[in-house]
Every structure is written in C-alpha cells, then in structure tokens.
Amino acid sequence: MLLQRKMYFSFVVLTVLAASIIIYQVQLVQFINESLDSAVDIPVILWWTPFGNDGKVRKCGKHSCYFTSNRTYRYHPKISSFLFYGSSFQIDDLPEWNPYKAPWGLLHEESPRNNPILVQQEILNLFKYSSTFSRFSDVPLTLVDLPGIRELLGAMELECISIIYLHKLADRKYFVSTKQKTRLINTENLAPLLYIQSDCDTASNRDIYVAELMKYIRVDSYGTCLNNAQFDKRLKENYLEKLNSEDFLSFIANYKFTIAFENAVCQDYITEKLWRPLIVGSVPIYYGSPSFRDWLPNNMSAISVLDFKDPKSLANFLNNLTNNETEYNKYLSHKLIDNYEVENQKLKNAFNRNNEWSRTEFGNYVDEFECLVCESVQQADQPTKMVSSEHYDCPLPRNPITNEIDHTNWWTEQWVIEKCGAKILMHNLKNNLTINIEKFNADKMKLYVSKQC
Q1: Which of 81, 180, 254, 273 has the fewest CB atoms inside 10 Å of its own CB, making it the most exposed?
Q2: What is the pTM (predicted TM-score) of this model?
Q3: Is residue 213's pLDDT more than 50?
C-alpha cells in the first residue's frame, strides 16, 4: 500500500510539473507574440542562419516584408518563411519544418564540399525557394563570380550593366601578346601552363590529373598543391588575399594557359577559376561544370579537359598550340578583335534577365532572393513546388582521368554517407523529433554500414 501511495504521489507531481511547463511555454509564446505584434504586422522572413538583411523592412514590388535573424520571431504569428545559407545549414539546429505555413529557402553559391548533405534529393525537397549556382534555381548565381567594372558603375544606367560585364571579358587591361608570352617562355623559363591551388583535398580530385599532365608538359605550380615554383616578392606573402589585385592578374596574364579546375563537378558550378584567366587573356584549361561552354564568350575561348581521352593527349594538343601562334590566337578572339561583340546570346541574356538588379555585388543577389520569397509568400495561390536536384546537381565524384566514379576518393564515400543522413533527418523533421547529434551520427553510420540508404 505504501508503494502504491508513493507511485501515485510521484505521478501527481510529474503531471503537475508537465502541466506547469506546458502552461509556461504557452504563456511565453503568447508574451513573445504580444511583444512582437506591435512592431510588425507584415510577413516575417527569418534568416535562421544569419546572412541577409537583419531587422529591416524591405519593399519588394507591391509587397513589404520584415527580414530578421532574431530567432524569437519564429513564434510570431506573421512568420512566413525560414531562410538558410547552405554552408551554415546544421542538422541539429533547425526550426520546425512546416512547408505549408512557413516554407524554407536555400541560398548557396558554394559547392557541396562545404556541406555534402545538400546534394541529396531528400534534403533539397525541404526547401521551396532556391538561389544556387544552377541556372534552374529561382535566383541563379551561375555568374556571380564574373567580375564587373565597378569603377565605371557610378552614374551608368542599369540597362548598361550587362554591357559593362561583357566588356570585362574583352578588356585588354592585363593582356599580354602571344609574342611576349613566347618570349617569356624562352627567356624567363616560364612554363606554358600555370597552376595555383592550395586546397589539395577536393571532391573533383583535380591534383591527380594535374600530376599526370605534368609528365608530358611543363606546368608552373605556385600553390601548396604540387608546388614546384615560387612567387616573387610582390605575391609571396598571403597570395590568397591578393587574387584580385592588379599585380596578381598581371602575373597570370603572362601565361599562355591557366589550369582552371573546380573543387567539385556540378552543373553550372563555375567560379573565378574560369573567369580570371578569361579576363586577363590566358586560355583556361577547364574541368568542372560539364555545361560551362554555355557561358563562354565564344566556343573557342577555353579548352575542356573532357575533350581529350587522357592527360597525355591534352598535353600533346597544348604543346602544339604553344608553338603555333596562329592557332593559339584563335582562342583569344575576345581579346584580339577590336570592338569585340560577345557571340554567346545565352551569356548576354543572363545579364539582361532583370535590369532592376545591378549585379555588381553578391549582396544584390541576396536582395533579389529575399524579394522573391517576400512576394511569393503573399501570393494568394502559391504553386506547390519544392527544390529539386537540378537546383543543386552534383553527382557522385568521378576520377578526372578515367571519368569513372572514384571509389578511392574520400568524398565519394561522404556523398553516400550523407544519403543515409538525409534519410534520418527527413524522418526526424516529419515527426518533429529533436535531434541528438551523437545518436544521429551513430544511426547514420549504421545505415551506411548495412547499406540501407
């Protein structure tokens, strides 16, 4: 009898305690809502991972929204969307997922090397809005790394912005003639090819290709990866902080070819590695987005590694070009022809897509993405769509030499492991379960080992 009384007493205490907690939480949410209501009576867009505008009302077309990174607003009755910056997306730090009440948005210009779980279809389906490197995203960031001529922007009309950007590709500020490049090879012992990388652990496994290429053609490699050359005094210290300096751009311009390999192979993931040599007049040797030619000034302004059966074949081709000025110059028509007009209509259309946005800073894309979400959440009949793999299309890493799936690459394993993680995360979000990161990782590895993903 005494044991039953103790059990009954414990039950009553626990019940009262649970009820008190619930009442406290309800009152807390009510208090927060009341304190926030007076400040905001328009849709609230919350940057769950602080990135865009914070504590600011923005006018977007006919609509206005309040943008904030203050997580207290997750309880606000006007909460309309949660936005995430991809590199900061953490599986154990997420709000409640309710795609009907407050859909999620993803902004990410980086490759999945920063967050491999984002390559999974299940994870992408968590989001309704996207701004990624893909041309298919709501606000494409495909050309975000193509520099403009900011010093000329001041009083220019917005409709001239596309002309300014495209002019940059034809500009001769850093251009070195083919004759001068040949002279530097002969007198200064410059190699025909330049390679500068200090990230030697990549999903694209680019260094194994370059190492093989080096067997058949000279390559000056100045970065940490495959290093065989040293910068002069101007660039020796902290060269990574000088990548867009005039000294650095002038240095690249001396080389006939620049190896431009991305850290991951994804459709439309194109970085400054391609644009920088194009702008200075060094022919890019490119490996990355399979569709990169869609954005070139013309079809012969860069050379694709995938056009050659192996590094030796590419080296033979480049050696011949190095010694044939006429053929080499065909790859520099955007620099050699006076008043050159970019032939690529797709490239021109990309800059004419929306003259309302000046595209001179990454922040302009962020602003556009915010406004897209702001306007969308206030549409009476919102289309039921979710972000798909074409918005972040990064297949399993392949060996750049054989073009076969690279099972020796640690990143290939990560792709598969994160497929298991995506499966568990979706289960937790759909059931509104709290995630314990240690248990999550343990369960993820169990699925991976048992091949249940």
Answers
A1: 180
A2: 0.85
A3: yes
